[in-house]
């Protein structure tokens, strides 16, 4: 498959999706939206992929929407995706225009190498983990452009940084340093720019090599389902999944590899 505004590669069971408009700080376009969706689907359906890394080329991750495209946007266009046919086997909340990352059964790591703003921040929040350069800067941006909290960020951001911090970041649209982002939980860890790739991929390879894909898929779904469940529902769901896991090949391999003191050979079944 050919892409125009991204790069896509698979190595060591890790798929890397790179936003590739470095001359425009990877400003978001309709073409990039299509490319990222197709690449995410490709990685999700590739049995040779166990982890997905989303990053940006050049100095930034994504500086937000392309301003030239934004100036000519049709107000009705923003509602595109509301009426897509839902897969009844997946929660509808994770099937809207941008909020589909949580429905992917594989871990998605945002490797934030620089400026992360607006729609770029939205995509970073929908990733499961965020590893950032200690020089990166973050902003919601919307309020300073006369816009509201877009594409579900008003739901997602408070669940990551808390209610008060979310209101601060959304209403002020101020620039947030990497150090503050780590302190409030916006990112999981920081690295120096020259170590970011090495440390991110070391973590990704650890997931790919030593963690059960079937366990990750269920754990990811459990965590994203929790906001819609009571404690009793979450517990009953966990008990049901535990019964299935105990009959699976990955459970038997996990125990055997531990007892035999060798690396596991998980198959995801």
From TrEMBL:
**Carries keyword Lyase?**
yes
Quick check: keyword Methyltransferase in the entry? no
State a single Gene Ontology molecular function. enoyl-CoA hydratase activity
- Keyword line: Lyase
| Enzyme type, top EC level | lyase
Q: Which residues cross the membrane?
A: none
Entry-linked InterPro entries: ClpP/crotonase-like_dom_sf (IPR029045), ECH/Chromodomain_protein (IPR051053), Enoyl-CoA_hydra/iso (IPR001753), Enoyl-CoA_hydra_C (IPR014748)
Could you tell me which Gene3D superfamilies the record lists for this protein?
A: 2-enoyl-CoA Hydratase, Chain A, domain 1 (3.90.226.10), Lyase 2-enoyl-coa Hydratase, Chain A, domain 2 (1.10.12.10)
Listed EC numbers: 4.2.1.17
Going by the entry's taxonomy, the superkingdom of the source organism is recorded as Bacteria
Q: Which family does it belong to?
A: Belongs to the enoyl-CoA hydratase/isomerase family.
The record, for NCBIfam families, names: PRK06210.1
The protein here is known as: Enoyl-CoA hydratase echA8
């Amino acid at each position: 498959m050919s892409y125009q505004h991204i790069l896509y590669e698979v190595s060591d069971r890790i798929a890397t999706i790179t936003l590739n408009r470095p001359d425009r700080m990877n400003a978001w376009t309709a073409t990039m939206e299509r490319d990222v969706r197709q690449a995410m689907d490709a990685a999700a359906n590739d049995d040779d992929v166990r982890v997905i890394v989303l990053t940006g080329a050049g100095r930034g991750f994504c500086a937000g929407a392309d301003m030239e495209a934004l100036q000519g946007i049709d107000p009705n266009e923003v509602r595109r995706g509301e009426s897509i046919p839902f897969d009844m086997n997946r929660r509808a909340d994770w099937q809207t225009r941008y909020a589909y990352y949580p429905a992917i059964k594989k871990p998605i790591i945002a490797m934030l190498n620089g400026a992360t703003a607006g729609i770029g921040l939205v995509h970073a929040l929908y990733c499961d983990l965020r590893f950032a350069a200690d020089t990166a800067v973050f902003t919601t941006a919307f309020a300073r452009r006369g816009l509201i909290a877009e594409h579900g960020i008003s739901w997602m951001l408070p669940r990551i940084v808390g209610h008060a911090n979310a209101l601060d970041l959304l209403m002020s649209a101020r620039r947030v340093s990497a150090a503050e982002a780590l302190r409030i939980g916006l990112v999981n860890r920081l690295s120096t720019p020259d170590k970011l790739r090495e440390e991110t991929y070391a973590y990704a390879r650890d997931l790919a090599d030593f963690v059960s894909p079937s366990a990750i898929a269920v754990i990811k779904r459990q965590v994203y389902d929790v906001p819609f469940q009571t404690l009793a529902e979450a517990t009953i769901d966990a008990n049901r999944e535990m019964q299935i896991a105990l009959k699976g090949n990955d459970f038997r391999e996990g125990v055997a590899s531990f007892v035999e003191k060798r690396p596991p050979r998980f198959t995801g079944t």
